[in-house]
Amino acid sequence: MGCVRVLSPGGSLGYGTNADSLRRGLELGLDVIGADSGSTDMGAYYLGSGKAYHSRATMKRDMTLILEAGLSNRLPVLIGNAGGAGADVHLEWARAIIEEIARENGMSFRLALIRSEQDKGYLRERVRAGKVRPMPGVPELTVERIDACERVVAQMGFEPFIEALDQGAQVVLAGRACDSGIYAAYPVREGRDPGLALHMGKILECGAMSAVPPTGRDCLIANVDSSSFEILAPNPEREVTPASVAAHMVYEVEHPYLQGEPTGVLDFSEVRFEAASDRSTRVSGTRFHVHDAPTLRFEGAEQVGFRSFVLGGIRDPFLIAQIDEYIAGCTQQTLEISGQDGVDINWIVYGRDGVMGAMEPERDRPAHELAVLAQVLGPTQEIAHDVAALMEARMIGFPYKGARTRTAHVAFPFSPLVNDTGPVYRFSVLHIAELEAASDLTRLFPIEYVRVGSAG
Amino acid sequence: MSTRLIDLVQFLFSKNAGPYLVTFDAVFDNEDSYRRVCDSGVFSKERMAALFKVPVERILSVHRYDAGRVIKFTMIREISSGDFGDRSVFGSQWWPPLIALEIE
């Protein structure tokens, strides 16, 4: 059994792929290009609003690079988490970019589009059947919370990607997907061990984060054989060491060696990391404990209101000394005058505890300058804006004790003074559902096949 | 003689582990320092809760991973990533209180 050679162009397609590393990867020889293009990491705004996370121009640049690399070398190109959040609107955003690239570059290929946005009925039924559990730290799921979500997606495993490859797709564009599955699909289809392939995917999904020096903005390659895989960086300025790969296994996960996948749990407790060359590392010993019933993670974004904010700087030492009284006074007057119910006001004081809030151990250290961010959450953008405008007026002129200055207590950096950021969302669904049938691993992710570019 | 944690580690960082959790990692580049910090027992749920002034129930887990020489603990966020009132969408920049942790 020969090696299956997989390239990842970086931790997130659309951040700016390193074209030199991609070229070097192609020179080394590849079988498939996999690209993860999203996450829940940026918060629920993108899933809720339907907006794409990345810049369109950079996404077009990165997609052009990997499509050219794939098509001119007859390599399948698998892209997952289209548009960042992977709902239908994001998939269409990415599809339009791919079609534009094909048109402008005279490319022609069979494209598979895999949808991950879910009808809420399936998840409601799973909740009623008692087959849904929250991720740690997340409240129990109710039907009301599902119904309140703008959109719900499920994270597909490698199964729909394999189905698309079986149907002759040269390029696969998928909605929300487990990062690992994007990279594991091709090796699994070629007969490699699913646990080993998923483990490899866990490493490739972050680009060169597991290399030295680490970065998510560079390419990484895996050569997968029957019982192990080798990780290497095509960029000669990076090396992949046993220590760097091992340390990466715990990155942005709660458990260091047990990680859930749709069909089982990856177990890294017996994994060996050995130098394969002076620049690459061989990984073996991954175990995979198969679930009795397969599961999928569902994600849903619920709108909680609209935000407006005022940002200002304070240098006056007399005001800094009584900043808490100033904030309380401005807030109280604003609420009194506005008469609005259902408005939430939140302050962040940079220079004191802006990053850490109540967790800040050095909150009482004297500051010579503060930034205050007053944000208002309202049921409509207009209400949020009006209340923030009232707050701005209070911030200018609040009569604090012992003032040695006149009005305009705050240095505002912007005109307009009140800025609207639009709707705010939260992940009300972040839950694992046990599936009704194993066939749901593909049935919930319908695939559309289209011929892109000129016929031929 | 006690030493500050920052003088024994290669990296300290905090990062989301999903939108409702933040995980804190101490990564070591040598076995002696890693063992010393493991043996010191400072990475307990109680110590981390006290250091970050959060109820101990919000410290979900403390783990070590010998193969990677990593000690990590995971905190349940007060406000999920990007929700109104959140201060760090990626969960970054919350690790600095670990710098001066005294290790025997």
Structure in words:
The complex is a heterodimer of chains A (456) and B (104). Chain A has 456 residues and is an alpha+beta fold. Chain A folds into 2 domains: 4-116 and 155-294 and 435-452, no CATH class; 302-428, 2-Layer Sandwich (Alpha-Beta Plaits). Chain A has 14 helices and 19 strands. In chain A, 51% of the residues are buried. Chain B has 104 residues and is α+β, with helices and mostly antiparallel strands. Chain B has one domain. In chain B, 16% of the residues lie in helices and 30% in strands. Chain B has 2 helices and 6 strands; from the N terminus they run E-E-E-H-H-E-E-E. Chain B has helices at 31-40, 45-51; strands at 3-4, 11-16, 21-27, 59-65, 70-76, 102-103. In chain B, strand 4 (59-65) and strand 5 (70-76) form a beta hairpin. The longest helix of chain B is centred in the middle third of the chain and has 10 residues, at 31-40. Chain B is globular, with a radius of gyration of 14 Å. The A-B interface holds A 40-45, 135-138, 243, 246-257, 268, 271, 273, 304-305, 307, 344, 346, 348, 354-359, 361, 375, 377, 424-427, 430 and B 15-21, 23, 25, 27, 29, 51-54, 60-61, 63-65, 67-70, 72, 74, 76-78, 80-90, 93-94, 97.
Task: Give the helix/strand layout.
The complex is a heterodimer of chains A (456) and B (104).
Chain A: E1 4-8, H1 19-28, E2 32-36, H2 45-49, H3 56-72, E3 77-80, H4 88-105, E4 109-114, H5 120-128, E5 132-134, H6 143-148, E6 149-154, H7 159-166, E7 171-174, H8 179-189, H9 194-204, E8 220-224, E9 228-232, H10 242-248, E10 258-261, E11 264-267, E12 272-275, E13 281-284, E14 287-290, E15 295-314, H11 317-320, H12 323-338, E16 344-350, E17 370-378, H13 381-397, E18 419-434, H14 440-443, E19 447-452
Parallel strand pairs in A: 1-2, 2-3, 3-7, 4-7
Antiparallel strand pairs in A: 1-8, 4-19, 5-18, 6-15, 8-9, 9-13, 10-11, 11-14, 12-13, 15-17, 15-18, 16-17
Chain B: E1 3-4, E2 11-16, E3 21-27, H1 31-40, H2 45-51, E4 59-65, E5 70-76, E6 102-103
Antiparallel strand pairs in B: 1-6, 2-3, 3-5, 4-5
